[in-house]
Specification:
Number of domains: 4
Structural class: alpha/beta
Radius of gyration: 29 Å
Helix content: 25-40%
C-alpha cells in the first residue's frame, strides 16, 4: 500500500511516498512504521494512514487517510477520512506557538459542535510532537523547539464526490452550458439551509468565511451538497502570523470574498451570504465574479447569464457592497425567495431516481432488483462485523476529544493497554491495566470535572476481565447502546455513556468489586455463588435494521470475531434505547423468547390501530420496561397546564410540535391530547412541515409542547428561537440530557422549560447515592443511568432465583409472575400484564416527575459551583 508522509515540507519539495504491506495494518498486527526519508511516523496516532495528498495551501496540507479504527473487518471495508495538517508559514516565537495552540483548540471545539448532515463531521483534533528532520532548514519556515516539531491535525469526514467548480467545468465541456437558473436556485436553497444552522450555533459565533464553488461538494452517494473547508481553521495560523484580532478577517478568495473581508474588516453572517451569491453568479455565468466588477457593478454580470429579473434581484441584494444593505440572515433570503415565488417551502433533498431507472435499462433493472432484495428485503440476513460488539478487547465509544486532563489522557492509554491484553486473553494483565485506568480517571475527576470523567466502559471491561480470570464461566448479559460513530446526532454518545454508567454500577455491586475500587474490605461471596457477571456491549446505531441483526447475533450467542466466546450463553438483554428501534428488535426477542429489559422506552403499547387513531405499538411480552409509559408524563404535563391556566385568555390551550415518523413522538402527542378537549389542541407534524411552516397555525396557543425525540435538537433550537413573550415550553424525557446544563449551550432560550421525566435521582437511597459519588465522582447522573441500573437489577434478581443453572425461559417465567418484585435505584419495581412498569398510587411522587430549567440553585443548600443552568424538580 502506498502511504504518504505528512511531515511539512518546503515549497517545491516532492512528497515522501512510502510502502506498507497491507497485512501489517490488519487488526491486532498494527505496528508503527516510519518514513524512509525523514523518519516521520506514518500511522498518525496509531490510527490514520495518509493514502493521497488532496491539496495544499498557506495553512497546511490536506490528505485522504484510511482510518484503521473505523468499522470493517478488512482494509477495503475501513472508512476514509480527511486528515488536515495545520502549520504556519513563518517561524513562530514560543508565545506565538502558544497562541496557535489556543486558537486551534477553540476553533476545533467549535467545529466539533457542528453536527449537521451536510457538514463533514469533525472526528478528532490533536497535536503531535515529532523529532525534527535532520535535513531541516530554517528557511523552510517550520517551527520547532528542543529538537521537536509541533504539528496540529484535524480529522474530518470524507465526502466522496465532486465539487461544484469541477461540476461546472464538466458541464461546460460535455453539455456546452453553465448552470441553469433552476440548478442555481437548488444550490442556493440547499446551502442557505446549512448556513441557517451554522449561524445559529449557540456556543460560538461561526462564519464559514470561504464559500465558493470548490468548497461545495456534491456527494456521489446521495447527491446532497456538503459545505466543506471552513475558513475558521485556516484563520488560526493567520491570526498569529499577522497579529490580527481573532474576529477580523484574514482569509480571502478573490471574486468570492466580500469587500469587508478583502480589506481585513470584521465579517458577519452577511459575509457568507455575499460569498454564496457570488458562487451562484459563477455557476450561472461560468466566470469568476471579479471580472464583472462585483459588487460595485451589479448589472454587468446579468448579461452573461440566462436569469429572471426576480432571481437576479435577490442575488444582487446579497451582493451589496455595504453589509447593512444585504439580507441579514439566511432566513431573510429564504423569505425573499418565497415572496418572489422562486421557491415554495424549504424542501428536503429531492429524489433523483428517475434518470437512474431510465439509464439502467433492462439488464440494470434486474441487477438493481437483486441488490434491493439483498439490501432492503432481507438486510437481517447479512452478518455484522465485530465492530458492533465488545467484551473488553476494543472500545465502542471513541475517546471524547474534549477530555484534555493529563490524568484522563493517561487513563485512556491504560485502558488501551488493558484492551490489548484482553484481546490476547491475558485477563489478569487486562484487569490490572483497567484498574490503573480507573485510578487515573478518579484522580483526574478530583482535579477538574470539566476536563475529565470516569469512563463507564472501562469499569465494565475491568469487571469482565475479573469475571474471565475466574475459574468459573461467568454469567453473561448483553447491553445494546444507540451510539453510532458515523452519526451527526451528538446526543447518542452521551446517552450511551449514561446507559453504560448504570450497567457498570450494578455489575460492580454484583461482582463485589465496588469496595475494591475504594480500597475497602470485602467480605461477601461475589456474584451468584461465586459466578461473576460479564457484560457484552453491542451497538445498534439507533437504527431498526441494525438492531434486528444485533438481536440475531445475541440470540444465537454469536459474537463476530470473538472465538473465545464460543460455548457461552447470553441470558438476557438490556436495551434498546428508543421505542422505534426497540420495536424492530423486539420482533426477534419475542420470536426467540429472550428477555429484554428496556430502561428508556416509554411509548404506549397499542396492539392494533383504532378507528380515528393512526397509532400502533405492539412490543410483545418478552420486552419488559423500567420507565413508566407516556401516559404518566402526559398526566403530569396536563395537570401543570391546567394549574397554570388563565381563564381570561381567549387563546387555545396547547400547540404540539411532533414528528409522525417517530413512535415516541406520536405516543406522547396522543397521550397529551387525550387530556384536553380536541378544540383546545393544535398539532403540527414536523416530518411534513418545517418550524416556520407551523408557526401561522400554532403561534396563538398558550403553551408549546415539544413532543420530539432523539436527533431533533435542530428543530428544538428553531422552536426556541421562534417563541415570543416567554411562551411556556413543555417537553418529554427525550429532551432531558443530564442533571445539569452548562452555560455553553443555548440553554438561555429554554429557561423555565418544563419536562416530564420518569424519575429523580434524589429519590434513590442514601447508600446508592453514596455509591454514585464514590464510583463516578458525582451523584448527579440522570434518570437514564438509574433506569439502566434497575434494568440489570431486575435481570439479576430473576437469575438469582434460579440457583446455579439459570435459563432464558425460567427468567421470563419469574419476571412475568404476578408475585415478582425487585428493588432498585428508582424504588420498588413490579410489572403489569403487558410487561410494563406498574405504577401504583403510592408511586405518585416517585414515578413521573416534572423538572424545570432554572438559572438558580434548586435548593438553598446547593453548592455555588454548580453550572449556571440546571434541572430543578417542581410540582405539577
Amino acid at each position: 500500500m502506498q502511504v504518504y508522509c505528512t511531515r511539512p515540507r518546503g515549497k517545491g519539495q516532492p512528497p515522501h511516498i512510502n510502502h506498507i504491506d497491507e497485512d501489517d495494518l490488519s487488526k491486532g498486527k498494527i505496528q508503527q512504521r516510519y518514513c524512509s526519508t525523514c523518519g516521520m511516523p506514518l500511522i498518525i496516532k496509531n490510527r490514520y494512514v495518509a493514502l493521497s495528498e488532496k491539496g495544499q495551501g498557506g495553512f497546511g496540507r490536506t490528505f485522504v487517510a484510511l482510518d484503521l479504527d473505523s468499522p470493517g473487518e478488512t482494509l477495503l471495508q475501513k472508512r476514509h477520512r480527511i486528515l488536515k495538517l495545520l502549520h504556519p508559514n513563518t517561524q513562530l516565537s514560543p508565545a506565538g506557538l502558544k497562541l496557535v495552540e489556543r486558537f486551534f483548540k477553540e476553533e476545533a471545539e467549535a467545529l466539533e459542535e457542528l453536527r449537521h448532515n451536510q457538514i463533514p463531521r469533525l472526528y478528532a483534533f490533536f497535536e503531535l510532537s515529532v523529532a525534527v528532520y535532520s535535513q531541516y532548514h530554517p528557511q523552510d519556515n517550520e517551527h520547532f523547539t528542543n529538537g521537536e516539531q509541533k504539528l496540529f491535525y484535524l480529522v474530518q469526514e470524507y465526502i466522496e464526490g465532486q465539487d461544484l467548480e469541477k461540476e461546472l467545468l464538466r458541464s461546460q465541456s460535455e453539455k456546452k452550458r453553465n448552470f441553469s437558473e433552476t440548478e442555481a436556485i437548488e444550490v442556493l436553497q440547499e446551502i442557505l439551509g446549512i448556513l441557517k444552522f451554522i449561524h445559529a450555533n449557540p456556543k460560538k459565533t461561526l462564519i464559514h468565511r470561504d464559500i465558493k464553488p470548490s468548497n461545495i461538494v456534491r456527494s456521489n452517494q446521495d447527491e446532497q451538497l456538503y459545505l466543506i473547508d471552513f475558513g475558521a481553521v485556516k484563520q488560526v495560523v493567520k491570526v498569529v502570523e499577522e497579529g490580527a484580532d481573532s474576529s477580523e478577517t484574514v482569509i480571502v478568495s478573490p471574486g468570492f470574498s466580500p469587500p469587508e473581508q478583502v480589506h481585513g474588516k470584521t465579517v458577519t453572517f452577511t459575509s457568507d451570504l455575499y460569498s454564496l451569491a457570488a458562487s451562484c453568479v459563477c455557476l450561472l455565468t461560468g466566470k469568476n465574479p471579479h471580472i464583472f466588477d462585483i459588487p460595485f457593478n451589479l448589472e454587468k454580470w446579468k448579461t452573461s447569464a440566462t436569469i429572471s429579473q426576480k432571481f437576479a434581484k435577490v442575488l444582487n441584494k446579497m451582493l451589496e457592497p455595504d453589509p447593512k444593505n444585504r439580507y441579514q440572515s439566511a432566513d431573510e433570503v429564504i423569505q425573499a425567495l418565497r415572496n418572489q415565488g422562486i421557491i415554495d417551502v424549504e424542501k428536503k433533498s429531492k429524489s433523483r431516481m428517475i434518470w437512474l431507472w431510465m439509464s439502467l435499462g433492462i439488464a440494470g433493472f434486474g441487477l438493481l432488483l437483486a441488490l434491493i432484495w439483498q439490501i432492503v428485503i432481507k438486510p437481517e440476513k447479512i452478518p455484522l462485523s465485530s465492530e458492533y460488539f465488545t467484551r473488553g478487547e476494543k472500545s465502542l465509544l471513541a475517546q471524547d476529544i474534549k477530555l484534555t486532563n493529563p490524568d484522563c489522557q493517561a487513563a485512556f492509554t491504560k485502558k488501551q493497554a488493558g484492551m490489548d491484553e484482553f484481546a490476547k486473553t491475558n485477563y489478569k494483565l487486562a484487569e490490572a491495566n483497567f484498574k490503573a485506568a480507573i485510578d487515573l480517571f478518579q484522580k483526574g475527576v478530583k482535579s477538574d470535572t470539566k476536563t475529565c470523567y470516569i469512563d463507564p466502559e472501562t469499569v465494565i471491561f475491568w469487571n469482565n476481565a475479573k469475571a474471565n480470570s475466574s475459574t468459573k464461566v461467568p454469567l453473561t448479559v448483553a447491553i445494546v447502546i444507540p451510539f453510532d460513530i458515523e452519526s451527526n446526532i451528538v446526543e447518542l454518545r452521551k446517552f450511551s455513556e449514561q446507559l453504560l454508567r448504570g450497567i457498570a454500577h450494578r455489575q460492580n455491586n454484583f461482582n463485589q468489586v465496588q469496595n475494591q475500587i475504594n480500597n475497602q474490605s470485602n467480605t461477601r461471596t461475589p456474584g451468584l455463588n461465586g459466578t461473576l457477571l460479564e457484560i457484552v456491549i453491542a451497538r445498534d446505531d439507533n437504527k431498526e435494521d441494525i438492531s434486528k441483526r444485533v438481536a440475531k447475533h445475541i440470540i444465537d450467542n454469536q459474537i463476530p470475531g470473538d472465538n473465545k466466546f464460543q460455548g457461552r450463553n447470553i441470558l438476557a438483554i438490556v436495551g434498546n434505547f428508543t421505542s422505534r428501534v426497540l420495536l424492530a428488535a423486539g420482533e426477534e426477542y419475542n420470536k426467540h423468547q429472550i428477555v429484554t429489559v428496556s430502561p428508556s422506552s416509554t411509548a404506549i403499547r397499542q396492539a392494533k390501530k383504532l378507528p380515528n387513531l393512526d397509532y400502533e405499538y405492539n412490543l410483545g411480552k418478552y420486552v419488559f420496561r423500567i420507565a413508566p409509559n407516556d401516559a404518566i408524563a402526559a398526566k403530569d404535563l396536563s395537570k401543570y397546564i391546567k394549574n397554570s391556566q388563565n381563564n381570561n385568555s381567549p387563546s387555545k390551550e396547547i400547540g404540539i410540535f411532533f414528528n409522525s415518523k417517530e413512535i415516541y413522538s406520536k405516543s406522547l402527542k396522543e397521550s397529551l391530547s387525550k387530556n384536553f378537549d380536541a378544540s383546545n389542541v393544535i398539532t403540527c407534524d414536523l416530518s411534513k412541515y418545517n418550524v416556520q411552516g407551523c408557526l401561522p397555525t400554532i403561534k396563538n396557543t398558550r403553551f408549546w409542547m415539544l413532543s420530539l425525540g432523539i436527533g431533533d435538537a435542530e428543530r428544538v433550537f428553531s422552536i426556541t428561537q421562534a417563541r415570543t413573550n416567554n411562551l411556556p415550553l413543555l417537553g418529554g424525557d427525550a429532551l432531558y440530557n443530564d442533571d445539569k446544563l452548562t452555560s455553553d449551550t443555548n440553554i438561555a432560550k429554554t429557561k423555565d422549560m418544563v419536562l416530564a421525566v420518569p424519575f429523580d435521582i434524589e429519590s434513590a437511597s442514601e447508600q446508592l447515592k453514596d455509591e454514585l459519588k464514590q464510583l463516578w465522582g458525582t451523584q448527579k447522573v440522570g434518570w437514564r443511568t438509574a433506569a439502566t441500573y434497575d434494568a440489570l437489577q431486575v435481570i439479576l434478581d430473576g437469575l438469582q432465583q434460579q440457583s446455579n443453572n439459570p435459563t432464558r425461559q425460567n427468567l421470563y417465567r419469574i419476571l412475568s409472575s404476578k408475585s415478582f418484585k425487585s428493588f432498585g435505584m428508582t424504588g420498588e419495581i413490579k410489572f403489569d400484564n403487558n410487561s410494563d412498569r406498574k405504577v401504583e398510587p403510592k408511586d405518585t411522587n416517585r414515578l413521573g416527575i416534572l423538572v424545570k430549567v432554572s438559572d438558580r440553585k434548586c435548593k438553598p443548600e446547593d453548592k455555588n459551583d454548580n453550572p449556571k443552568y440546571r434541572f430543578c424538580t417542581i410540582q405539577p
